[in-house]
Amino acid sequence: MKLLVLILNRLFWFVPTVLGLIVITFTISHIIPADPVAFVAGDNATAEQIEELRRQLGLDQPMHIQLWRYIVAVLEGDFGVSLYTLRPISEDLASRLPATLELTFVSVFVSALIGIPLGVVSALKRNSLLDHVLRIITVSGLAIASFWLAILFQLLFAMELGWTPLQGRVAGWGPDVITGFFLIDSLIMGDLETFWDVVSHMILPVMTLAFPALATIVRFTRAGVLEAINSNYVMYEEAMGMPRRVIVWKYVLRNALIGTVTQIGLIFGILIAGAVVVEAVFDWPGLGSYAVQSILQSDYNAIMGFTVVSGVIFIVVNLTVDVVHGFIDPRESR
After folding, report:
1. C-alpha distances out from residue 142 to 132, 137, 208, 212, 303, Å
2. Transmembrane ranges (predicted)?
3. What is the pLDDT of residues 239-250, one digit of tens each?
């Protein structure tokens, strides 16, 4: 019951949060000193042609009227038409969203799969050589720029060693689109050759995105484990003669992961934002590369659509994290 109340409380704030995101995104997009209409019209367009196009796009109306129309349209699932592709932005986003989500989910999974055990080991081996090495690695992961790391990975693993493809999502056309997630679609079709080709293309971008995420997870897991180990209940279990391995994996880890789970939710949003640079470097056909193209072309509608969709994804992920918190620690749902 308490968990249900927590979920309803989070859902209550969902709508005003999304509305606030839309208003902020719209306002920022329209105060940027650039004229998308002139860009679309071309260099040879006359002033009359530019004004006519501006009227057709509804950009001659006062800002508050444009904002109201945009909010109503977004709530109906209509993000407008791209000024560059001249296609509905909702279709562009829907076609590219699976690629970004697949890359992000795999990156979060890899970072958690590796980072949580490393964080536990780092805490249990506190101040050892291994602990110092892991702390250096985590600091490096947080300090290194993603685009620079991506280029280094391309130079070393793709161009120098030839172990992985340089860029792209798959060689050729890829599997038949069922879910939009190539890993899942290739397995559904029983096409293992395509599956491993998709995996090989994901290695470098996943390594680039997962490295800073792994660093964060290691640091928070280590801190959580250290705090839990020094708690009274752990001392009691040790005094009762319970094996340390059982204490760590059955009691300590559950309490230590509360902060880590929170960070995973935040990391997901950070990776969505980081995908803008990484996808551009690896020519990954997702939301990130679409956002970069839209920014370079001053395509306001597409930029706003990308920002709103990314924000909604981030809000939904954090809602999920709150629910998971309720299961891990019932005190969180009080």
Report:
1. 16, 9, 12, 5, 27
2. 12-32, 99-124, 136-158, 202-221, 252-282, 302-328
3. 777 777 777 777
Could you write out the DSSP letters of every residue in 239-266?
A: HTT--HHHIIIIIIHHHHHHHHHHHHHH
pLDDT value, residue 124: 82
Q: Using CA atoms, how far apart are residues 334 and 325, in angstroms rounded to an integer?
A: 11
Domains, the chain, ranges and CATH?
Answer: 99-297 (1.10.3720.10)
Whole-number Å distance between alpha carbons of 209 and 275: 8
| CA 41 – CA 45 distance, rounded (Å) | 6
Tokens of 81: 């038409």
CA atoms of 104 and 307, how far apart (whole Å): 16
CA distance 43 to 39: 8
First-to-last C-alpha distance (Å) of the chain: 10
Q: How far apart are CA 91 and CA 81, in angstroms?
A: 9
Q: Closest Cα to residue 299, out of 67, 37, 57, 25?
A: 37
Q: Check pLDDT > 80 for residue 190.
A: yes
- What per-residue confidence (pLDDT) applies to 249? 74
231, 197 Cβ separation under 8 angstroms: no
Q: What pTM, to 2 d.p., does this model score?
A: 0.80
User: Taking phi first (over 0 means left), then psi (-120 to 50 degrees means alpha), and beta for anything else, what does residue 291 get?
Assistant: alpha
Read off the tokens for 65: 């009227």
Q: What's the CA gap between 85 and 71, in Å, rounded?
A: 22
184, 166, 167, 162: which is closest to 175 by C-alpha?
184
Greater confidence (326 vs 151) lies with: 151
* Spatial separation of the C-alpha atoms in residues 191 and 170, rounded to whole Å: 13
The mean per-residue pLDDT over the stretch 47-62 comes to 73
